[in-house]
């Protein structure tokens, strides 16, 4: 019997990340009706597309992060694929309703889980400790955590469960790149870096996180009054990352 092993450690909102670009963007789990079913053994196995996708290692890696983001740490899911058992462990609890009987993942759930997934992409596929913060009880942080992880990196938001994935990030003050997520250049990054967080989001909040982030830069920014083009989308759910 084989079981998925997770090098994921929770310290409040602190976690390790190692989700890869390909696992997130070229995966059947984000291109089918995964969100229509409960994030449970029966819900996963009743979907033939999900069941088939879980034969692939990258799909299991992605599902481990989906479960980690969505469900609280006292919940887990065990599924059997081709006579092998895989266990996926909850961690942050950003969308616990998805794991309930007959549960599903609506737009708000999709955006919280998406922001979490995007924040945990690692260009090299390495385990790096990061502090996740945002306007969600599951992302509250302690003073000790904020003192240790005091380097703001970026804020992530979007929806990876749509047919055309929406993957955005904005740069924290003083930052010009996101090497952990994008590698050596912002060009061809897994996320569309739309600008500085102070220009496209509200905040920062007391914990340093940003909210209500937009998917494009303001057309005008006059004395703090930002004017955006019609059709600019705003995301109420976002995850800000801080490094050591």
Question: What is the strand and helix layout of this fold?
Answer:
Blueprint: E1 14-17, H1 21-25, H2 41-45, H3 48-53, H4 57-70, E2 76-81, E3 84-89, H5 107-119, E4 128-133, H6 143-148, E5 151-159, E6 166-171, H7 179-182, E7 192-196, H8 197-200, E8 213-214, E9 220-222, E10 225-227, E11 234-235, E12 239-243
What does this structure look like?
By secondary structure, the chain is an alpha+beta fold. Helix content is 23%, strand content 23%. The protein contains eight helices and twelve strands. The protein has helices at 21-25, 41-45, 48-53, 57-70, 107-119, 143-148, 179-182, 197-200; strands at 14-17, 76-81, 84-89, 128-133, 151-159, 166-171, 192-196, 213-214, 220-222, 225-227, 234-235, 239-243. The strands form four sheets. It has a six-stranded mixed sheet with strand order 1-4-12-5-6-7. A two-stranded antiparallel ribbon has the order 2-3. A hairpin with a 6-residue loop joins strand 5 and strand 6. Helix 4 (57-70) crosses helix 5. The longest helix is centred in the N-terminal third of the chain and has 14 residues, at 57-70. The termini are far apart. The relative contact order is 0.16.
């Amino acid at each position: 019997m084989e079981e998925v092993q997770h090098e994921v450690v929770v310290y409040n909102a602190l976690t390790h990340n190692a989700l890869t670009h390909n696992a997130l963007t070229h995966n059947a789990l984000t291109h089918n009706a995964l969100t229509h079913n409960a994030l449970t053994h029966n819900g996963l196995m009743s979907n033939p597309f999900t069941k088939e996708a879980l034969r692939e290692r990258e799909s299991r890696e992605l599902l481990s992060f989906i479960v980690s983001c969505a469900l609280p740490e006292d919940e887990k899911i065990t599924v059997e694929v081709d006579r092998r058992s895989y266990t996926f462990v909850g961690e942050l609890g950003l969308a616990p309703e998805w794991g309930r009987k007959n549960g599903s993942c609506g737009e708000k759930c999709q955006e919280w889980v998406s922001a979490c997934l995007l924040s945990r992409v690692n260009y090299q596929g390495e385990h790096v400790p990061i502090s996740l913060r945002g306007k969600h009880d599951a992302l509250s942080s302690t003073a000790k955590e904020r003192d240790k992880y005091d380097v703001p990196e970026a804020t992530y938001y979007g929806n990876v469960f749509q047919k055309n994935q929406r993957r955005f990030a904005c740069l924290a003050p003083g930052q010009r790149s996101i090497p952990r997520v994008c590698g050596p250049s912002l060009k061809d990054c897994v996320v569309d870096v739309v600008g500085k967080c102070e220009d496209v989001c509200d905040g920062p909040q007391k914990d340093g996180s940003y909210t209500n982030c937009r998917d494009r830069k303001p057309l005008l920014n006059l004395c703090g009054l930002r004017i955006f083009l019609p059709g600019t989308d705003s995301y109420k759910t976002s995850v800000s990352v801080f490094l050591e």
